[in-house]
Amino acid sequence: MKTQRKIDSLCHGLPWQEWDAVLANGRHTTVSSNSWLETVVEEGETIALFLSGRVGLRPLREDVEGNETTIPYSAPAVLSLSEDLEHESAHWVLVQSTVCLFTSQKLQTAFAASPRFASNLVTVLQDQTKHHLRCSSKTEDGLGRLSASLLSRSKLSGEQKTRVKVTQSQLATETGLSRQWVNKLLKELEKRGFAERKRGHVVLLNPLGLEGLPAQR
Known about the structure:
Arc Repressor Mutant, subunit A; 4-stranded antiparallel beta sheet; elongated; 6 helices; Jelly Rolls
């Protein structure tokens, strides 16, 4: 039985001549693993089309080793390289990738050369958005459950800074999350300034802030 071609491919339904005409408008480059995509971008290039490999999005505040917060995309993938100070994310290449970089004008020319390519690009972007929302929803839901569990153990104390005696295994049992996921979420609470992990207990630095993370079951 033949494997069906992915319908979200950027070149799906395009004759090779049309696909070549699209790619001729961009600049091809190979980006090595474990590198920032921004290091290979030239002036005026605002769109990166990943034709192979895997790329991730991570907050700019993250260091290189903090890849647990990366939201990965496998090719085909489309990333905007426009500078946006309100969108604090950076592009991180997880494995060696083939990329085609476009300026806004060159991308418009590619759309004119192939309306089908423009349609395929929109489909890929829609899939990426759904993936991003699923990842974000999973994290926020987990944070809500974890926060509710921690707060239920701290209600006897009226102090702003509260010490909660609990293990990660206990939190995993109470929340229905894996122990590994609890550990990642505790790290996220630390980054947001809500809590600190200690051996055998968790220090809540901002219990009121935790109440703003709704639990969903």
